[in-house]
Design a protein that fits this description.
globular, 9 helices, mainly alpha, about 210 residues, Tetracycline Repressor, domain 2
Length: about 210
């Protein structure tokens, strides 16, 4: 009897988690397609295939739902990264993180539009939940850059926060242009080229 109750509880929790993910995935698509200002919770519920009241089981309001969209998408990105071998130099791992993000954006342009055109340039980026998601992502870069300095792969006077900002700045600009001008270029290739241009500035200076 106790085993049956535990199993039922586990299945209920799994269904709840799946519905939570489904709502966030639908929100990413709807907000990306229609824009944050225009899209409604009714639109999201319809896209997720759930009754409107179900959204309020997980999120207090539209702002709360928007605030949780970045965490869901970063979670998916990290799952992709975690399936790859965590091997190689700090530069290799930094390259994988950077280029995997561009690949994720290309595969999920609605997410790119929500984050890089709507959230990042606005006061929404100050929301505590969104800020935490951004900080967690940035921390992955900083950790690798600091490790690279410690292992003497990168120059001793490298500022990890500045290096991270340069990489993120290029990513934000390239993604925004790609979205605004009809995806006229290969975003993955541009991202790889940006990394190739920036990463040599992190390396140890050779003595002449």
């Amino acid at each position: 009897m106790a085993v049956t109750l535990k199993l039922k509880l586990k299945l209920k929790q799994q269904r709840s988690q799946e519905r939570h993910r489904r709502i966030l995935d639908a929100a990413t698509r709807v907000f990306g397609d229609r824009g944050l200002a225009v899209a409604s919770l009714t639109d999201v519920a319809r896209a997720a295939g759930v009754p409107l009241p179900s959204i309020y089981d997980y999120f207090a309001d539209k702002e709360d739902l928007i605030a949780n969209v970045p965490a869901r998408n970063f979670e998916e990105l990290y799952e992709i990264l975690d399936r790859q071998a965590d091997e190689g130099s700090c530069r290799d791992r930094l390259h994988r993180l950077y280029t995997a993000t561009f690949s994720y954006i290309v595969g999920n342009p609605s997410w790119g539009r929500v984050f890089f055109l709507e959230i990042w340039p606005s006061v929404l980026a100050e929301h505590p939940t969104i800020r935490r998601s951004i900080d967690d992502y940035a921390r992955r870069y900083i950790d690798l850059l600091e490790e690279g300095v410690a292992r003497r792969e990168f120059r001793r006077d490298l500022d990890p926060h500045l290096a991270m900002s340069l990489l993120m700045g290029a990513m934000c600009h390239l993604t925004a242009v790609w979205l605004l001008y009809g995806k006229r270029f290969d975003l993955r290739m541009k991202g790889a080229a940006a990394f190739a241009a920036l990463s040599p500035t992190f390396a140890k200076r050779r003595r002449s």
